[in-house]
Amino acid sequence: MSIAKGPQVQRAARHVVGTEGRKRRLALREDTGGTESEAEFLSRYEVRERSRFPRSEHSVDVALFTVRNGQLSILLVRRAEHPDLGRWALPGGFVRLGTSGAYGEGEGLDAAAERELLEETGLEVFPGYLEQLRTYGDPFRDRRGRVFSTAYVGMMPDLPVPTAGGDASAARFFAVEDLGSIDGPELAFDHDHIIADALERVRGKIEYEGRLAASFVTEPFTISELRRVYEAVWGGPVHRGDFRRKVLSAKGYLEPIGAATDRTGGPPAQLYRVGPATLLYPPMQRFGMLLGKQEP
Questions:
Q1: Domains recognised in the chain with CATH numbers
Q2: Can you give the three-state secondary structure of 19-49, one letter per residue?
Q3: Would you list the DSSP string of 87-125?
Q4: CA–CA separation, 50 and 291 (whole Å)
């Protein structure tokens, strides 16, 4: 039978814990003479404290999207090493910590993501084109040990054909809609989870970053051509009338150039260029325009 602890008992327990903590701190001050400098603390930490904690690794993974042949696609590499040998993975790898992993050595996360992408696929991105998605740290995500991974996401037009390098035996783009299918690639680690999160990020991003969506069409463009970019990224057809009203009502998004084209195969369509707006207001809310899809 459990006995409920009253407030006095709880306060006494906290006092005991606090007293023990103070005793340990006092003992430490006595060991160091009470005059320990920061350099001395760091030296002692290296010898005594760091050895008490299990070792972990930190890696980066890059989810890089583009639109190819009218389909939203993602860049994957085939692993040439264990674990998950032969499976497809996001480009990435371990962050370099320098010769000893000491303060100030090694590289930052952004630099590691750009380096790994270049090494494994031959693709180089300008600083700022990749943004951090989130960090993943499930204890079962990597059989090599405790590996925390910071994922990056980006979406860019006109990406060249990738060339495998480093510890990747192949590199290619896969249509997002093929992932998870019987004929689709078998993914390594927890990269299916990372890709799902990254996909949601880019789909939400073009709701308010109209310039990003428009970067996949050549100016001047028609509203139908722009709509097909949104449909590719959002994963389904949108209501054409609603889409037209939304893009034309977003202040500063599109500017007519005063000309039309018949390249769409129907009646002459007005041509537009991107306006000065950097963010769309109101944003393009996809679940209000996607046909047959409801907001989760």
A1: 57-204 (3.90.79.10), 209-288 (1.10.10.10)
A2: HHHHHHHHHHHHHCCCCCCHHHHHHHHHHHH
A3: -EE-SEEEPP-TTT--TT-S--HHHHHHHHHHHHH----
A4: 56
Q: What token pair was written down for 40?
A: 């001395």
Structure tokens at 59: 């890696």
The SS3 assignment for 227 reads helix
Side chain identity at residue 122, one-letter code: G
Q: pTM of the prediction?
A: 0.83
Phi-psi domain of 8 (left: phi exceeds 0; alpha: psi -120 through 50; beta: other): alpha
Question: pLDDT tens for residues 5-50?
Answer: 555 545 544 544 456 656 555 555 555 555 778 888 777 777 777 6
Pairwise CA distance, residues 253 & 275, whole Å: 5
CA dihedral (143, 144, 150, 154) positive or negative: negative
The length of the chain in residues reads 296
Q: Report d(CA 89, CA 62) in Å as an integer.
A: 10
Rg of the chain's alpha carbons, rounded to an integer? 27
Q: Give the pLDDT confidence of 198-223 residue by residue, as tens digits.
A: 999 999 999 999 999 999 999 999 99
Residue type, 44: R
